[in-house]
Amino acid sequence: MLQRLARQSTQTQFQTHAPAGRSSRYGRLLLVVGVLASLTACDGGTPRTENTGGVDQGVSGANEGRGAKPMKIAMSVPGSTAASTGQPHGQSRAEVYAQVRRMTALGKQMFFDPSLSGSGKMSCATCHNPDRAFTPANALDVQIGGADMHRPGMRAVPTLRYLQAVPPFAEHYHDSDDEGDESVDAGPTGGLTWDGRVDRGADQARIPLLSSFEMASTPRKVADAVRAAPYANAFREAFGEQVLDDEEATFKAVLKSLETFEQTPEVFYPYTSKYDAYLAGRTTLTAAELRGLQLFNDETKGNCASCHISQRAKDGSPPQFSDFGLIAVGVPRNRALAVNRDPRFFDLGACGPERTDLGGRAEFCGLFRTPTLRNVALKKTFFHNGIYHSLEDVMRFYARRDTNPDEFYPVVKGKVKKFDDLPRQYWANLNTEAPFDRKPGDAPVFTDAEIKDVVAFLGTLTDGWQPSAH
Ligand code: HEC
Ligand code: HEC
């Protein structure tokens, strides 16, 4: 079994136990369909019996047999027709399903609706294009948004696929899947966005809607847009007749609907890649893909699988190609970004400035959440600051960062300024495991031919594979 050994070896403050690595974590559901108390405002103050706690059940049969753990869903669905008619009673399973279906359909329409934005021109799908696993169709380093559609962002757009597996953020993560040893501290892990600063899809959706450089909207504008939208009636049906009279309740229901849409299994975690078919014994990999897989897994070569898990979990669930650890890999500064025109500005990930709760905690500086590599071949921009635009370039970085640093970092007066996007006082946070364990003079981790093989393997992680296309 692949093990990441001492991922946090330079970060002893995270560890009380000798790290035995973390091999697997799967099917963790974060974007829980929490059609819960946060929506109580949406039923217009209708008295309602508080229902007993949530139950675990599959929302969709599509979950079963695909390894995704069943979605957690509350039996009480505020804002449902039952609640809005003022009949205080619990809900049947069928009613819960119906409400999830309504919210999914609404969330989908909102996801594609530019009228929710301040400019009227930008929807979630502008940056999260469904044809590209919900990443941008263009190859810009960062996207341009804002009320005037001229404001550049500061981070590359991540995929929205497979987020159901991201655990809530924890400073000290103890993986119950980890060889049964929950005493292993895997370090900071989980949370949504590159720095893990929110745990729920609804809280996350608030960020782009209100961001001055993304959708630049307000709860009022969003509520006005919903009132005028073709789905206004469906919205009232789902959340109650009075919901549109209350701007805050409307905004919350919008966020919840987007979260619910993002949990549609067949859209967001279909597990239909060639690699999934290969794991299921339904196809074979080409020689190049197999060599790439080998290099990806080899602890003395790429050691990629120590963070980007490639094997099934013990319970048989499919690999997510991330353990969701927050890690510093020393990505070079992207000098093309507007924020980086200020030489004093650093995007330090978990310690800020976008994330604020861990500010001043030096051990979190430079850490970004390990992204899934599923569908990575559909992406046009890589790493949190969007500095690279081909998988070959990303692989060259992994293979040669330490053997040939001058190829990635500025050279000033003959000296390489390594790790130029992370102030020196945080360098102890940088990962030092393979492939980051070499020095100048050593052979690079991969040859050019090996890079091609690993890229061929990464191509097997794209969803929608069909035997006939092979
Ligand atoms: C202007 C481009 C843009 C728009 C529009 C946009 N996003 Fe994003 N999205 C991003 C970027 C950039 C990030 C990473 C943010 C960060 O790390 O701070 C992100 C992150 C996310 C994440 C977390 C992904 C992860 O890996 O944890 C989710 C979920 C998400 N967006 C959903 C949405 C939804 C829903 C909308 C519409 C309400 C939306 N986005 C609109 C650019 C955009
Ligand atoms: C120690 C953990 C770790 C190891 C080992 C590791 N990665 Fe990563 N990987 C990360 C993190 C963290 C990021 C995001 C870094 C950032 O943007 O600052 C990342 C980003 C990536 C990306 C860009 C994805 C995107 O959506 O932008 C690719 C591709 C990738 N890794 C492939 C690999 C391959 C191939 C290997 C083996 C050669 C590997 N990784 C080894 C943690 C790791």
UniProtKB/TrEMBL annotation:
Source superkingdom: Bacteria
Localization (cell): Cell envelope
Entry keyword set: Heme, Iron, Metal-binding, Oxidoreductase, Signal
Matching InterPro entries: Cyt_c-like_dom, Cyt_c-like_dom_sf, Cytochrome_c_Peroxidase/MauG, Di-haem_cyt_c_peroxidsae
GO MF term (any one): metal ion binding
Domain Cytochrome c positions: 102-259, 287-462
CC per GO annotation: cell envelope
Main location per the UniProt record: other
Gene3D superfamilies in the record: Cytochrome c-like domain
Pfam assignment, any one: CCP_MauG
Chain intervals with Polar residues compositional bias: 1-16
Region entry Disordered, spans: 1-20, 42-67, 173-198
Name used for this protein in its record: Cytochrome c domain-containing protein
